[in-house]
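The data layer described in this paper is built around a simple, fixed record for each protein. Such a record has a labelled line for the sequence and another for the backbone structure tokens. For reference, a complete record is included directly beneath this paragraph.
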Amino acid sequence: MPIVIPDEILEGSGLTVEDIRLDVAISLYQREKVSLGKAAEIAGMNRWEFQKELAERKIPLNYSISDLEKDFQTILNMGK
């Protein structure tokens, strides 16, 4: 479902459509409503570009202890 922002509001904000897409993507990611990959897609970026943008804004990655344990188990299984 598209979100419509009237041109006069967009122009008055000083933001571009890309700025708004990025802000929405970051907000959804920070609230853990979407994954990193999905947020990057919403922003119209690849994952690395989106991660760089998060880093520049000093926004941490959503990476839990559970994620670390899964990654560690994956690494252990690669050696088998």
Notes: The chain has a mean pLDDT of 93. Residues 19 and 77 are 41 Å apart (CA to CA). The chain has five helices and no strands. The helical segments are 7-13, 17-30, 36-43, 47-56, 65-78.
